[in-house]
Automatic annotation (TrEMBL):
This is RING-type domain-containing protein. Coiled coil: none annotated. Gene3D superfamilies: Zinc/RING finger domain, C3HC4 (zinc finger). The keyword RNA-binding does not apply. Residues 70-87 have a biased composition (Pro residues).
Length: 263
């Protein structure tokens, strides 16, 4: 499980510090969007990091179709726990032996090597006695990995149109944010300029709003400064703006009433 997003990580990031509790998505978000190459757990500066499949990426099929818990036949011990992901050292050795097994982009996610090898299915999915549900889970698992990890991630991070290419698969990504913005207008859509400016998400993760709906998103998702009539991304950005641009009433602050400001 990823310590940042709490997702059951399908793939993990392994750096020289050998922490592997960060998922592939959070690792790329930090490195590409936040330009932060530190390990979120120990703050080690990981110049190089590997993204590789997490062996525990699928749960055991313990629930039969229809939702009723199925008593598992247990003639033997339960299936063995999935093996931990390979260590950084093992991955470095694997890359020295077989450089082609790894993808790294010249201008994409510097220092990141993505393991292209199709992982072995989790032991839980291969355990005998799982029946139809386990077979379906195994097929779903294989379907997800049919596209190699580096291709999945290049698509996920690509500057593509969320309307006509929501999975980033079909066409060349746009070269600049402006090109994407102009293309979206041909659909009558816009991405929120405050969200885009904040740079917390990849283009395909941002909703393409109908132009008329943008004010509703701004009011719902962001903080409005009534003095400037500008929107700020969240509480932190709003607070910074208020501190920098507007006066703060010292009397209120002393009385414990914070966040009251004057233009
Ligand atoms: Zn994560
Ligand atoms: Zn670490
Ligand atoms: Zn489009
Ligand atoms: Zn927004
Ligand atoms: Zn203001
Ligand atoms: Zn006051």
């Amino acid at each position: 499980m990823c310590v940042i997003c709490a997702d059951r990580a399908e793939a993990v990031a392994v750096g020289p510090c050998d922490h592997s509790e960060i998922c592939h998505h959070c690792c790329l978000r930090l490195r590409i969007l936040y330009r932060d190459a530190r390990c979120p757990l120990c703050k080690a500066d990981n110049a190089t990091v590997y993204l590789t499949a997490a062996a525990s990426s699928a749960p055991a099929a313990t629930v039969a179709e229809g939702g009723a818990p199925q008593p598992q036949p247990q003639p033997h011990a339960p299936p063995p726990p999935p093996p931990p992901p390979p260590s950084f050292e093992e991955l470095e050795a694997a890359r020295a032996r077989a450089p082609d097994r790894f993808y790294s982009g010249k201008r994409w996610a510097l220092g990141v090597h993505v393991d292209k090898a199709m992982p072995d299915p989790p032991p839980a999915l291969l355990a005998p006695g799982g029946g139809v549900a386990a077979a379906a889970a195994l097929r779903a698992w294989q379907g997800r990995w049919r596209v190699p990890l580096h291709v999945q991630l290049l698509q996920w991070t690509s500057r593509s149109c969320p309307v006509c290419d929501p999975l980033g698969r079909n066409r060349r990504p746009f070269g600049t944010p402006k090109e994407l913005r102009e293309h979206l207008l041909t659909h009558g859509r816009v991405q929120c300029p405050v969200c885009v400016q904040a740079g917390r998400r990849f283009p395909l993760e941002l909703e393409a709003h109908q132009i008329d709906d943008l004010p509703r998103h701004l009011a719902r998702a962001h903080k409005h400064c009534a003095f400037c009539d500008e929107y700020y991304y969240g509480d932190d950005e709003m607070y910074d703006h208020m501190k920098r641009k507007h006066f703060h009433c010292g009397i209120c602050q002393a009385a414990g009433t914070h966040h009251l400001y004057f233009a």
